[in-house]
């Protein structure tokens, strides 16, 4: 049985493994080609740690960072597939399941705000 997400180290592992996949993906890699990874990764550690562990280390507006990227529903679908696969490959348990639900919710809200979801 895989361990659950319990610590900041677990969050760091999840984020690193996920973005390794993103950077190899033919659809998503071009969207992230401009990213300053040494700057971006700690922000993502803080984002997910705030959401999952409640440590309130993230300050910012994630939607505003994505609205100008010219991404489509297909991008969100791939992002979610890779994220879910990364969680499943590394973790199991209540917090791991919550992580996948939170990711689906975030993707849904972003797509709704961007007008990508059809009623």
Structure in words:
With 119 residues, the chain is mostly helical. It has a single domain (8-113), classed as Globin-like, CATH 1.10.490.10. The protein contains five helices and no strands. Helix 4 (73-90) packs antiparallel against helix 5 (94-113). The radius of gyration is 14 Å and the shape is globular. The mean pLDDT is 91.
CATH topology: Globin-like
CATH class reads: Mainly Alpha
Count of extended strands:
0
In DSSP terms (H or I, runs of 4 or more residues), the helix count works out at 5
Mean pLDDT: 91
How many angstroms separate the termini? 40 Å
Which features characterize this protein?
single chain; 119 residues; mainly alpha; Globin-like; 5 helices; globular
What's the topology here?
Layout: H1 8-22, H2 37-53, H3 62-66, H4 73-90, H5 94-113
Helix pairs in contact: 1-2, 1-4, 4-5
Short description:
By secondary structure, the chain is an all-alpha fold.
């Amino acid at each position: 049985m895989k361990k659950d997400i319990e610590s900041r180290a677990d969050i760091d592992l999840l984020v690193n493994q996920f973005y390794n996949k993103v950077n190899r993906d033919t659809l998503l890699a071009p969207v992230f080609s401009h990213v300053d990874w040494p700057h971006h990764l700690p922000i993502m550690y803080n984002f997910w740690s705030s959401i999952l562990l409640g440590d309130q280390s993230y300050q910012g507006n994630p939607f505003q960072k994505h609205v100008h990227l010219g991404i489509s529903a297909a991008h969100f679908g791939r992002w979610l597939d890779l994220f879910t696969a990364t969680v499943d490959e590394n973790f199991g348990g209540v917090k791991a399941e919550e992580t996948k639900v939170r990711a689906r919710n975030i993707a849904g809200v972003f797509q709704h705000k961007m007008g990508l979801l059809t009623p």
